[in-house]
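[step 3/7] inverse_fold.run input=structure_tokens len=142
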């Protein structure tokens, strides 16, 4: 079970009780206003990230190599979508854990990311094989 789902409401209740004991209804109004502001800021961030992601095709990224360099374990899916500015191409079944997404750039390089409970666990960079010159010594005709 995720401990955050329990601790956040308990912390909110303790904060509300402390505000009530210290300032009465004014304290409750202050705590309620602060919680509402935090919720509005979070909602605003989510809508901005998803609005930018809606413009780009699903599973696209400017540079898969740069995305690979920026990823860090524990990053949440919203942060990765903000980095790529596109929703990932879903490779896992709906509701299945871990969730697997792929982002591909114009050069056919791709990053496949695995998320467990919404947190980035591991990722892999796949680059297409490079075309080698026909003549190993240089361009043809020299």
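[step 3/7] decode complete -> sequence:
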């Amino acid at each position: 079970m995720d401990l955050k789902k329990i601790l956040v409401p308990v912390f909110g209740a303790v904060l509300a009780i402390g505000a009530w004991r210290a300032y009465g209804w004014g304290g409750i109004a202050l705590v309620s206003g602060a919680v509402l502001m935090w919720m509005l800021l979070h909602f605003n961030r989510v809508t901005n990230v998803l609005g930018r992601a809606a413009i780009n095709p699903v599973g696209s990224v400017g540079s898969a190599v740069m995305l690979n360099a920026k990823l860090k374990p524990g990053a949440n899916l919203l942060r990765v979508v903000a980095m790529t500015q596109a929703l990932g191409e879903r490779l896992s079944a709906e509701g299945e854990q871990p969730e697997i997404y792929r982002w591909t750039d114009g050069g056919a390089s791709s990053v496949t990311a695995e998320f467990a409970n919404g947190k980035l666990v591991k990722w892999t960079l796949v680059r297409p094989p490079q075309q080698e010159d026909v003549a190993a010594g240089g361009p043809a005709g020299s």
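[step 4/7] annotate
The chain is about 45% helix and 15% strand.
The first strand starts at residue 89 and ends at 90.
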